[in-house]
């Protein structure tokens, strides 16, 4: 019996109603709908079971790209395929529209991989936080790691090594280390390049740098980036938009490509440049 996980935008009534409809669909098709305790408090679906969504056969994310990021974070590297249902504006990650959800579930349940649907594996980065030689946390990111100033009106100093070789010290508002998937998020707003999500690469983009070198760099995924907090100011560390820690001077962050991937279910050929074209209203000529 297939287990279908649900991750939902908890503040959208249409997302909650769709989650309840999917839970009913699961029962009708001899599947089990699984939700975590936090979503269970708002969905109110008697057909759904409270459990571990990382142990499901597929996870349906209902909301938008933000909900997709939360779903990836909840899976913590487990390669459960994710069907992203978009209820907002055009999304980069959530590509199934609300009216197509039932068809998508039918295709996943009864169709064949490579015919009715396919998998789109996206690179993750592994993030290790260190303080006084002790590892504080080891986390995964789909979009980006942001190391940023805590206090308005001040820059921070961040010493960067690449593959154990000193590179430079950034004097900036912050530093973004992004994946190709994350190149269209915060890095793009900081004037970083847009990368195809089919690539495996590490993108380093400074935020408002106070120095002559203000360019982004695209690194090979085999390279490891080490960032040390210098000077006397602390920094905030956010992963995929969620604040995870505050680091003090002398603390270190190490970022490298992860072995794990985020796995999305695609039901039609996905052309990234066509999503960009629609997103930005680009003309044919």
TrEMBL record:
Keywords: Kinase, NAD, NADP, Transferase
GO biological process: NAD+ metabolic process; NADP+ biosynthetic process
Keyword Nuclease tagged: no
Gene3D superfamilies in alphabetical order: Probable inorganic polyphosphate/atp-NAD kinase, domain 1, Probable inorganic polyphosphate/atp-NAD kinase, domain 2
GO molecular function, one term: NAD+ kinase activity
PANTHER family: NAD KINASE
Protein name: Unannotated protein
Lineage: unclassified sequences, metagenomes, ecological metagenomes
């Amino acid at each position: 019996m297939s287990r279908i996980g649900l991750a939902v935008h908890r503040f959208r009534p249409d997302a909650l109603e769709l989650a309840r409809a999917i839970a009913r669909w699961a029962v009708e098709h001899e599947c089990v709908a699984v939700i975590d305790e936090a979503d269970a408090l708002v969905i109110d679906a008697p057909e759904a079971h409270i459990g571990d969504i990382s142990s499901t056969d597929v996870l349906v994310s209902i909301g938008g790209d933000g909900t997709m990021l939360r779903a990836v974070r909840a899976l913590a590297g487990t390669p459960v395929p994710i069907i992203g249902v978009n209820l907002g504006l055009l999304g980069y990650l959530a590509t199934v529209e609300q009216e197509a959800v039932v068809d998508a579930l039918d295709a996943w349940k009864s169709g064949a991989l490579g015919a009715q649907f396919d998998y789109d594996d996206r690179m993750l980065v592994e993030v290790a936080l260190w303080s006084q030689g002790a590892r504080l946390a080891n986390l995964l990111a789909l979009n980006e790691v942001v190391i940023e100033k805590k206090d308005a009106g001040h820059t921070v100093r961040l010493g960067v090594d690449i593959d154990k070789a000193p590179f430079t010290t950034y004097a900036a508002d912050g530093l973004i280390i992004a994946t190709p998937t994350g190149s269209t998020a915060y890095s793009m707003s900081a004037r970083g390049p847009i990368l195809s999500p089919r690539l495996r690469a590490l993108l380093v983009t400074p935020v408002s740098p106070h120095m002559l070198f203000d360019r982004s760099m695209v690194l090979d995924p085999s390279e490891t980036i080490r960032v040390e907090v210098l000077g006397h100011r602390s920094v905030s560390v956010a992963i995929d938009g969620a604040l995870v820690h505050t680091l003090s001077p002398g603390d270190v962050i190490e970022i490298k490509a992860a072995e794990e991937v985020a796995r999305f279910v695609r039901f039609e050929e996905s052309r990234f440049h066509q999503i960009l074209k629609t997103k930005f209203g680009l003309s044919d000529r």
